[in-house]
Amino acid sequence: MSMPLTGFADRFKTRALAWEEKRARRLYVEIRPSDLLETANYLYKDCGCRFVIATATDIVTAITVLYHFAHDASGVMVNIRVTLDRDKPAVESLTQLFVGAEWIEREMWELLGITFIHHPGLKHLLLPDDWPNGVHPLRQDFRQDELPPPCPGRGAEENR
Amino acid sequence: MSDTNIKTIAIGPYHPLQEEPEFFRLHVDGEIVVKMDVELGYNHRGIEKLSQGMHFDQVPFLVERICGICSTSHPFSYVLAVEDIGGWEIPLRAQYIRTVVAEVERLHSHLLWLGLAGHFLGYNTVWMWAWKAREPLLELFEKLTGNRNHYGMFKVGGVRRDFEDGFCHDLARVLDNLVPVLDMFKGAVSDDPVLRSRMEGVGVLSYDDCRAYGAVGPVARASGLNIDARRDDPIAAYPLVQWRVPVLKAGDIYAKALIRVMEMYESVSIVRQCAHKLLTVRGPVDLRVTDVPPGEGIGHYEAPRGECFHYVMSDGSNRPARHKIRAPSYTNVATDVKAVVGETVSDAALVLAAVDPCYCCTERMIAVDAGTGATRHSGAELVRLCQAKTERLRRGGRA
To answer: What is the pTM of this model?
Structure first.
């Protein structure tokens, strides 16, 4: 592992809940949600990592968010995982560090119902503005065969 | 500057058939853009959800339809992600074939962009020439795959079709004819004072902004970020051929255009080397993978517009348990919010087009007077404004 990431290992390996190098350039680290801001800040500012995207997954027992950071100098993908309470998932927003997290956090908020604390504006990104509250299409209990909710401009006939 | 002077110009919405519709709301003070909002999701197709209901072998066909231009980028990233789960090394011949398909696609995608940039600038001849040069590349694909786009070449563990040697000769001939055209475009972009004045110093994006937004591809490389997923995280035959990653520092539209032209030369070189190798490298083109073990994998490939990222989680069944997709425009379009501020309305269409999103979006623009809500410009009007400015410059007048 290249120098900047060695520093990352020194600093965060003991605090991590899990640390796994699955392949030569694929590192998966599970951390406590309370450590997220500090970890992301270190990766972005000190290691020069680029924030790629985040993947939120409903694993039924919990909701996990996997933040993908690319260390382009070495080609290593650093993946930071946090596990959140499924009933009330909430975690600090990475928009406090870089603006690039704004859209994906809005997306995870609407598709999985995760609250991002200190996000500048959690509003719909992909779903219509009048999408009903509490319906999250990427949750495992979302019923795809249910009729879509009403949208403006659609006739009453279509909404039935 | 008081808020009462701020008018709003809406760019979009769009036609449902568009591939990548976005809605831009420009806040303008006189001719200067002071702020921009972007809205997405008008054509959200729920592909991540659909993918969870498909067999691992069906997903490439689904994700190939995410983009109608660089249709191989998504299957490429997806198969890399699944191969990352299994830890498979695909046969060498398949690596070369993947590289050829991806790079010929980059050529036709960049030519498409070049043509449209020419159109926006009022150089419709450039548009016609670029698309004429693009045609033989699409014909190559038709010859090989039966389709001009959506080739269906990629599968987990290899490629679906092998190349015949005759195809490699065709490839070399088409590229030989393409290089003089590229030379002409390079001259057109760098020597024309009017074109340069329309592009230099316009829509500048700084290195730090690129980092903060997570910009990728030509947009990032035009601002000094030396990143390219093909080189940084070596895939396919890219480590086996000689090529460079062009990087510029200016961050303006001119740099973004020049990067794309320079990349086309690199693509030509990569394809030539691979086509030559394919005449001697023999063997299977498919690993014949039958089962995907449980696990998670990441695949990312440098699409023509930048890094295309796929994450796949497998639970050992025959379908992805989770499939996350991030197209390059997702981060690049967000940078428009920064790049367009301080520019004039007549440059806005060009700045938005410079990140190479889907151009259809910018064709349906309406300008609305914030006070009365009345429409000021039609969509075509903004493109016309942009073209008219070039025309004035060309005649020696002031912009």
So the answer is: 0.89
